[in-house]
Amino acid sequence: MKYYLLPEKGNFYKANLHLHTNLSDGALSPEEVKAKYKSNGYSILAYTDHEVIIPHHDLNDEDFLTITSYELALEEDIEYTFSSVKATHLNFYAKDKDNIIPPFFDEDKISEKISGTRPYITDGMRARKYKFEYSPECINEVIAKANEEGFLVSYNHPVWNLHNYEDYKDYKGLWGVECYNHECAITGLVDSMTPIDDLLHRGEKVFTLATDDSHREDSCCGGYVMIKAEELEYGAVMKALERGDFYASTGPEIKVLTLDDCCLHIECSDAAEIIVNTDKRIAYHEIAPEGGTINSKDFYINYWVNENKRRPEKDRPNAYFRVTVIDKSGKRAWTNAYFYENFEF
Ligand SMILES: [Zn+2]
Ligand SMILES: [Zn+2]
Questions:
Q1: Of the candidates 249, 277, 312, which is a domain's last residue?
Q2: What are the pLDDT digits (tens) for 256-278?
Q3: CA of 334 to the centre of ligand 1 (A)
Q4: Final residue of a domain: which of 234, 249, 264?
Q5: Which single residue of 28, 211, 254, 291 has CA 20 to 30 Å from 70?
Q6: In Å, how far are 32, 156, 211 from 323, measured between CA atoms?
Q7: CATH code of the domain covering residue 192
Q8: Domain range spanning residue 203?
Q9: Separation of CA 127 and ligand 2 centre (Å)
Q10: What is the pLDDT of residues 69-108, one digit of tens each?
Q11: Is residue 5 part of a domain?
């Protein structure tokens, strides 16, 4: 049976799911952000200004869609010194475009730096005041409540927050995790697939995100997701995000990704390397011939199915594979992880 790991039908839409404007601590206005991204081929932006949901549907046009969203910083309640305050940053993406009541809101967190958000605060938001202690249990309560209220939750820039395994290993219910955050990367703190693999190993079926977290013009247009959806319409795009019908990238394009009786087929833009990783580290690695490129490849991932004379991957919960495409300048595209349990071989 042939599976389309990226949907057969629909169109790819380029999206940045993490950015800030001058309504919080960014430099560009919402309109300037739209102009910058539209001129770079983007169709979808999530305006994730800090702490307050600010809808931007007025910016939508037939080629451009905004996602109702915001970024919440959960921090240790101790006196702020840059290196000592533990913090977890989560983005919330509303499945319903008119859902502008954040699950959590604390007016005390609206500092001078993000005071442009103040005009958008409503009494409905004020009613969402919460008491928070910095612990995985409390963070999980936040994620669970957001899920209940119809938000997809992403875990942002673990590396910038200096997180390690102990910090995130117990997180539950996340929809996505950033493997690449452009603003963090250009300031020297480069995220990776490690937290995603760690959470996948623990049975959390998280998706892989590349974003900009752009606060300034020079941190725009670095990390993005390509969403394959039926149309550029809010509900269709959110369903595609919820299903994982997208890949993350900093440059390479993945055109086709199918699985047909253990043959994993990929078609992509000019690649120098394609790597298939699994949860057991077994990797297939295809390197372009010198001076050449790879544009398609079949990986027969039945190797470790048949060689083992059994199908351990099918029997073992949470067994997965994922693909990375690297171009000659080192830019990467990452697919989501796909779980063997979802396929018949
Ligand atoms: Zn953040
Ligand atoms: Zn941010």
A1: 249
A2: 999 998 889 999 999 999 999 98
A3: 21
A4: 249
A5: 254
A6: 34, 21, 18
A7: 3.20.20.140
A8: 10-249
A9: 24
A10: 999 999 887 666 556 689 999 999 999 999 999 889 999 9
A11: no
